[in-house]
Amino acid sequence: MDTRALLSLVTVADTGSFSRAAAGLGFTQSAVSQHIAGLEKTAGTPLLTRRPAVAPTSAGREFLRHARQILAHEQAARAAVVRVTGRDADRPVSVTVTPATEHLVPVGGPLAAVVVHDAAGAAAALTSGGAEVAVVDGIAAPGDPLPGSEADMLVRIVAEAPVGVLLPADHPLAGRPGLDLADLTDARWLDSTRTRCATSDLSAAARLRLHRGVAYSGSSAAVVASLVRAGHGLHATPLTEAAPGDGLAVVPLTAPGLVHRVEVRTHVPARPAVLAMADAVRTTS
Fold this sequence. Notes:
Elements: H1 3-15, H2 18-25, H3 29-43, E1 48-49, E2 55-56, H4 58-85, E3 93-97, E4 111-116, H5 119-128, E5 133-140, E6 153-168, E7 179-180, E8 188-192, H6 199-206, E9 211-216, H7 221-229, E10 235-238, E11 248-255, E12 259-267, H8 272-280
Parallel strand pairs: 3-4, 3-5, 7-11, 8-9
Antiparallel strand pairs: 1-2, 5-12, 6-10, 6-11, 6-12
Helix pairs in contact: 1-2, 1-3, 1-4, 2-3
């Protein structure tokens, strides 16, 4: 299957326009139309509606899911060849991070760019060759890998700490020696996806549905503390030596046993500049 046709389909679906897709890809609009027509002939059904708007059909949405995977695999294969052959050995190192780990990347040296993604996006960038170093964080059971690691990756754990529950100091549970997450499913939790110990990560790792309170789309620890202090929801946090601050308490999460981990990932093999950049990522938190 011609991957150029798949790229045309994905780009038309993303832009909602044959002309914009053609301009972005450097193809003629006629070529893009022929690509889509060929794919629809192969599939035996329309993949896109044309009127009143350009959009995937139900069959097109399923086809697109596989098309994106094929394109990602092709990009990953190209990146693997570059790593193995050592081409462009002197180019700057590209790094991807999760929002809570951006500050861990050292400034200077052979650094091309630091791109912030969520954990899934950072893992995808490393797999596809969009980045050569990924600094990710997440919640997992002790000894379990964070999602997104693969067999050909070198993974170094930068930090790992048990998980606690951040709550207002006057909360009825603030004086407990430990908490069971299963007893807190009816409590309100900050609806966060980009913070350290994000509620979405906690819910997925514990395989429990948590009741969401106020939504917070940022990554600031100070804002999280303010929201918890004001009673807008509980939040998970790594258990560290640092005090939580005025008006807050941290109680260890005793069940399930979970840890918050920061990992640095690179592919194997990797050029020396990449390994040096990965080794320079350090944290004491």
